[in-house]
């Protein structure tokens, strides 16, 4: 690739894809399991396949309120005499003979002798005699036994993050507890002499530490155990002590700040001394300085200090990495292509993750627009955005109306 004034190509940077690959290769899933009640399992990663021990539904039942009949009786217009009622939870115990029917309600057991349900709106009733018109089919409105899940079927696979539907499904199988992977332990801290902790008085030259709050939020949503180690000063010995403390008993360490090549940027050097640096530069914006490595048994992510960069690199690299470590399979993010109604500034040579607002235009079409200023310190852009606009390395400025790739936050955060 040629270098020009509009090009940010840096041969020492990895591409986003290469960085993701390196991270994936540098990880190990934790594997330790625990047994919890299905409510506590919400949002956690299933550690063992779940097989159904019953059929769901366990019996043939009615999908409608109406009348249970024998399909063979339905020749032209017919009249049938009602011999009983099957309620949900209170089946009709008798047998329905030819020329007969039973009143039935949704979810009730299909009585012996019957195989078809006629909706109550489609019959005329006179006392215990009902008249049925033509056009009905044998078997209609009957939910077969095992229609949802069958005995012996694998209904949930290990590695799935359990959703509300999943824990409901486990309940429908009568399963009170499941095995899940234990929570990851993640230690994190901010670095920077300029940082003031929220709650303290801001001194001249200081800014409030916001990264520990965005990190707290993102990590909490992931369901990990958090160890917040506060703010660490830009002193090599402080950074070193914090690293050693963080590595004890934790699965991952996340820091922000101090990963550039400034005089006060000690994170990457410290990691080199105490552990291993796998890479420290990625061809992306925001987030170019990003350090990945290992210290003792903990994986290490040194995020850039700029608040937007820290969030973007977390979502693109750290989150999928932690998900894999937790044992989650199929970590795939939804991405869609939509027209962009704003023009976008972009240099070639790096991948951009610009902040966008995905919305419907007047014709109801899904379109995206820019949140405006894209500086990596502008945290309000992340707050306003509901998606990333992902622009590939080779892409330059984008004219309004062009199609762009968008990653919605819904589901991402
Ligand atoms: P650094 O990566 O340490 O060079 O920091 C880059 C920019 O991000 C600087 O303007 C820092 O002041 C700012 N910054 C670093 N850490 C934080 C933080 N925890 N919260 C808010 N801003 C930060
Ligand atoms: Mg700094």
From TrEMBL:
Residues 187-324 form the MoaB/Mog domain. It comes from the Bacteria. One of its GO terms (biological process) is Mo-molybdopterin cofactor biosynthetic process. Keywords: Magnesium, Metal-binding, Molybdenum, Molybdenum cofactor biosynthesis, Transferase. GO terms for cellular component: cytosol. GO terms for molecular function: metal ion binding; molybdopterin molybdotransferase activity. It is an enzyme of class 2 (transferase). The keyword Magnesium applies. It catalyses: adenylyl-molybdopterin + molybdate = Mo-molybdopterin + AMP + H(+). Pathway: Cofactor biosynthesis; molybdopterin biosynthesis. Its cofactor is Mg(2+). Gene3D superfamilies: MoaB/Mog-like domain (3.40.980.10), MoeA, C-terminal, domain IV (2.40.340.10), Molybdopterin biosynthesis moea protein, domain 2 (3.90.105.10), Molybdopterin biosynthesis moea protein, domain 3 (2.170.190.11). Its EC number is 2.10.1.1. It holds the Pfam family MoeA_N. Belongs to the MoeA family. Catalyzes the insertion of molybdate into adenylated molybdopterin with the concomitant release of AMP. This is Molybdopterin molybdenumtransferase. The lineage of its organism: Bacteria, Pseudomonadati, Pseudomonadota, Gammaproteobacteria, Thiotrichales.
């Amino acid at each position: 690739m040629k270098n020009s004034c509009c090009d940010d190509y840096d041969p020492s940077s990895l591409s986003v894809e290469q960085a993701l690959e390196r991270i994936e290769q540098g990880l190990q899933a934790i594997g330790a399991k625990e047994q919890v009640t299905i409510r506590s399992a919400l949002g956690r990663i299933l550690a063992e396949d779940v097989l159904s021990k019953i059929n769901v539904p366990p019996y043939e039942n009615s999908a409608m309120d109406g009348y249970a009949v024998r399909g063979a009786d339905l020749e032209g217009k017919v009249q049938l005499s009602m011999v009983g009622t099957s309620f949900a939870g209170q089946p009709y115990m008798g047998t329905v003979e030819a020329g007969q029917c039973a009143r039935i309600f949704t979810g009730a057991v299909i009585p012996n002798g019957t195989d078809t349900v006629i909706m109550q709106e489609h019959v005329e009733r006179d006392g215990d005699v009902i008249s049925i018109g033509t056009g009905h089919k044998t078997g209609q409105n009957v939910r077969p036994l095992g229609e949802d899940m069958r005995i012996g079927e694998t209904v949930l696979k290990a590695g799935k993050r359990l959703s509300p539907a999943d824990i409901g499904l486990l309940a429908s199988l009568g399963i009170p507890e499941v095995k899940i992977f234990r929570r990851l332990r993640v230690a994190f801290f901010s670095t920077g002499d300029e940082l003031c902790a929220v709650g303290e008085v801001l001194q001249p030259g200081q800014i409030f530490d916001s990264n520990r709050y965005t990190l707290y939020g993102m990590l909490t949503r992931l369901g990990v155990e958090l160890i917040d180690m506060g703010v660490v000063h830009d002193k090599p010995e402080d950074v070193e002590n914090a690293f050693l403390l963080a590595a004890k008993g934790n699965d991952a360490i996340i820091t922000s700040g101090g990963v550039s090549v400034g005089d006060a940027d000690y994170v990457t050097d410290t990691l080199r001394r105490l552990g291993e640096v796998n890479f420290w530069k990625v061809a992306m914006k925001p987030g170019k300085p990003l350090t990945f490595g290992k210290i003792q048994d903990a994986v290490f992510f040194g995020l850039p200090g700029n608040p937007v960069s820290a969030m973007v690199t977390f979502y693109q690299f750290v989150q999928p990495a932690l998900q894999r470590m937790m044992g989650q399979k199929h970590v795939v993010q939804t991405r869609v292509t939509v027209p962009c109604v704003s023009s976008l500034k972009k240099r070639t040579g790096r991948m951009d993750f610009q902040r966008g607002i995905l919305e419907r235009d007047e014709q109801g079409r899904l379109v995206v627009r820019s949140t405006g200023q894209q500086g990596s310190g502008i945290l309000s852009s992340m707050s306003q955005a509901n998606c990333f606009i992902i622009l590939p390395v080779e892409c330059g400025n984008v004219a309004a109306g062009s199609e762009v790739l968008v990653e919605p936050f819904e589901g991402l955060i």
